[in-house]
Amino acid sequence: MEQYKGRIAILGSGNIGLSLAKGLVKSGYVQAGQICLTRRNASKLKTFEQQGFVVGSDNAAAVAAADIVVLAVLPQQLNLLLNEINPSVDAKKHLIISVASGVSCKDIRSKLNTEVQVVRAMPNTAIAIGQSMTCMATDNAATVHLEEVTRMFETVGSVVKINEDLMTSATALCACGIAFFLRAIRAASQGGVEIGFHADEALKMAVQTAKGAADLLLQMQSHPEQEIDKVTSPKGCTIAGLNEMEHNGFSSSLIKGIKLSAVKAGDLYTKE
Ligand SMILES: NC(=O)C1=CN([C@@H]2O[C@H](COP(=O)(O)OP(=O)(O)OC[C@H]3O[C@@H](n4cnc5c(N)ncnc54)[C@H](O)[C@@H]3O)[C@@H](O)[C@H]2O)C=CC1
Ligand SMILES: O=C(O)[C@@H]1CCC=N1
Predict the structure, then answer these.
(1) Tens of pLDDT along 186-208?
(2) Strand arrangement, sheet containing 54-56
(3) Total domain count for the chain?
(4) 151 and 189, same structural domain?
(5) Cβ < 6 Å from ligand 1: which residues?
(6) CATH number of the domain to which 20 belongs
(7) Taking 80 as the threshold, does the pLDDT of residue 81 lie above it?
(8) Which residues are in the Pyrroline-5-carboxylate reductase catalytic N-terminal domain (predicted)?
(9) What pLDDT digit, counting tens, does each position of 214-245 carry?
């Protein structure tokens, strides 16, 4: 894979910003020294500095030294950040990538004195290990830039390009989705403890079983119900457990949770 030659500023180095930075270096897309990480209290980035990243709290300086600028602060922190970097953003030089939920490309440009190109990307924390599902949208970025951003995120997982008005749905399904599946694994391991396993072995069993289920779908390109049919023996224990879960609202609660998350994702910026 060809390494990206430019410099990347990740403004707001919290959970997702740092996961992205780790993933990009691990994948070989860039070297740590090509990434500048900012957060308000830069002393919290010491371990990253030791790994070769450039760290600091001066967002304007980070932007001036970069060509790709990743906005990774909370939606309610974004306007302050945009005000701060506004004088340093140059539409001819910079490409902005925003991972902030519920903030449109147009919202971002409206706070900057320039028609800079903006791409929205919605990764999830599995980006740190190269397993993100990243959804991407833009309303003005040139194809060549969109291709570069796609290449960047493909080094750390799968990418799907979507219409911008589906970005909040993507947030719920993929970014929040990591937490939903993790909770399902946690619940399965708790069930495992009730039926006789020690917590550590129950968790290991639940994790590998979940991984097997996901890999079955990915590798066989099959539908979940097709794979479920292979597990549910007639009058067997799987269908008994599955139906009990459904009587208690298993699918329904996931669907309702995802719907609520999508609504909330759309409100995070406007209701700041
Ligand atoms: N956590 C996740 O799994 C995902 C989060 N997102 C989006 O990414 C954004 C960040 O989310 P998290 O990483 O979870 O939040 P976080 O709170 O962990 O990280 C935000 C970071 O930004 C820093 N910050 C705030 N204002 C700043 C400023 N003016 N200059 C420099 N740094 C500043 C904070 O100190 C903090 O370290 C949000 O907009 C969220 O919607 C998107 C996809 C997944
Ligand atoms: O919970 C949140 O608001 C962020 C956005 C997607 C994942 N975490």
Answers:
(1) 999 999 999 999 999 999 999 99
(2) 54-56, 35-38, 8-11, 68-71, 95-98, 117-122, 132-138, 157-161
(3) 2
(4) no
(5) 11-17, 38-40, 59, 72-75, 77, 80-81, 99-101, 122-125, 175
(6) 3.40.50.720
(7) yes
(8) 7-102
(9) 999 999 999 999 999 999 999 999 999 999 99
